[in-house]
Each structure stands twice: as structure tokens, then as C-alpha cells.
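Bench log. Compound arrived from synthesis this morning; before running ITC I wanted a structural hypothesis for how ribose-5-phosphate sits in the protein. Inputs:
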Amino acid sequence: MYYVVSGTASKNVAENLAEELNAPIVNTISKRFPDDELYIRILDDLSGKDVIIVQTTYPDQNIIELFLLQNAVQEAKAKTITIVIPYFGYGRQDTKFQEGEAISAKAIAKLISLNADEIITVDPHKEHILKFFSKPAYSCTAVPAIASYLKTKNIDMILAPDKGAIERAKKAATVIKCKYDYMEKTRINGTTVEIKPKNLDAADKNIAIIDDIISTGGTMAESIKKLKKQNAKKIYVACTHGLFAGDAIKKLNSAGADEIISTDTIQSDFSKVKIAPTIAKIITTIKK
Ligand code: R5P
């Protein structure tokens, strides 16, 4: 039997996961000292228990909370510690794009591995980041769950915002049983992308664009504008991890998004798809 420890960044996912696995949620205290340092205490007896800690590593303070939870669970003498990271923050800095840069994904993964027996995450930006963990690390994908949500929307075509993400679009299109394609994206810098016009047979079609992350909304907003020019009917934008940084939502709405959909790896008003069943499935598969 598992015991689920919920980090404050992932309360919903932890509660849903506990329900899926028929596991109790561990009682904890998490509070801030006057100087804003974090205090963590585990209230239940976890000695000899298989423990799952659920915590998204975004934004930064949630990484510290995860480290403290890991330490508290280890100090409580748990038998095994499984770390579930619904959204692995810092995952996109996964290589040295320029000399002298930190490989942030590697730095965070190494530290998480210190107090863990295995790690599970959802739709990492690139799968190779799993190798940065020094303990067995697994990923699962939210795409089938997102596709199931989109099934009721009469989608004619699924689009990936760039060629590299075509497999994601294909996977969703297989569930929905519709066409799929990709857009031609060039990233100019952190906030600007260029989407080349490409004839996608979008006229009068209901289209869903699926990405792993919506951050500034730039990628999706540019894609929507190109599709609008091609007279698309309805445009749904969906992602696993809805960061919605700054005025992303405003950008998406003014570009003409008909609906914004995200999972709850990062909880927001757009978290319409629950990720816990997908995570429960991979935990059960690993343990077989
Ligand atoms: C990049 O390769 C990712 O898959 C997303 O397309 C990107 O993170 C989205 O960022 P933004 O919303 O800022 O355009």
C-alpha cells in the first residue's frame, strides 16, 4: 500500500492520485517562518512504508519544498520514496545552448535523485532529461487524456505547433480519429516566435493545436492568427502544462482562441483534464 504526501503545488493531483491508488494522504504541516523560510513536518508514521511524494517543481519555491518533503520522508524511515513531478520545471534548459550555461534540468534532476528510489514525470519537454536523474525515471503522457476531452468537440484536425511535436499530434489524432499536421515554427527569442504560413486545408475546420507547454502564449497566438487567415472555424488550444506566464491568456483570447485547455499538472482555471489517472496507470505498470 502506498502513502501519498502532497506538496502544496500539487494538492489536486495528489488527492486524485491517492483516490486512484486507494492510498491514504499523509498529514503534514507546511508553514513559513517570519523570514519566509519553509518548515515541513510529517505527522504520520511512515516507517517502512512505500511513499509517493507529489510536487510540481515550478515555480522555484516548490523545488525547495520538494527537497524538504523528501528529507522529512527519508528521516521518517520510509521504505521507498517515489517522486511524482506533474510538471518538471526547468526541463527546457536541457542542454548548453551557449557555452557557459547551466544545464538546469540536469542540476535539478541530480538533487531530486539524492532522496528518491524512482521518479515519474508527465510530458517532459524532451525525453532525454530522464537520463539526468540518477535513479530510475519514467514519463507518461497526457495526450490521450487531452484527446478524450477534445473528442466531444467535433475536431477535424489536430495540429502540432512545430515539426518536432508531430508525434504528439499524431497520438491525439489517433484517439479522435481525425487528420493531423504540423505548423512551421521558428523561435526568434524567449517571447517571440514566427509561424510560417503553410496551407493546411483549415478552411471551415474545427482545429485543435496541442503543445506540451503554453508559457507566454506566443506560439499558440501566432498559430491561431495563421489559422484564422486560412478561415478555420473553431480553434482549440490545448497543452499538458499551462504556465500561462504574464498576459498569455489575454494574448490567446485576442488571437481568437475558442477554448483554452490544460491539464492540472499546474492548477489553473483552464485545468479541464485530470492527470492523476494517467499517473496512476504508469505507477501500476512500473510495479508489475
Ligand atoms: C517549445 O518547444 C515548447 O514545446 C512550447 O512550444 C513552448 O514552450 C511554448 O512557449 P510560448 O507559450 O512562450 O510560446
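What the model suggests: Residues 173 and 180 are 6 Å apart (CA to CA). The radius of gyration is 20 Å.
ITC booked for Thursday regardless.
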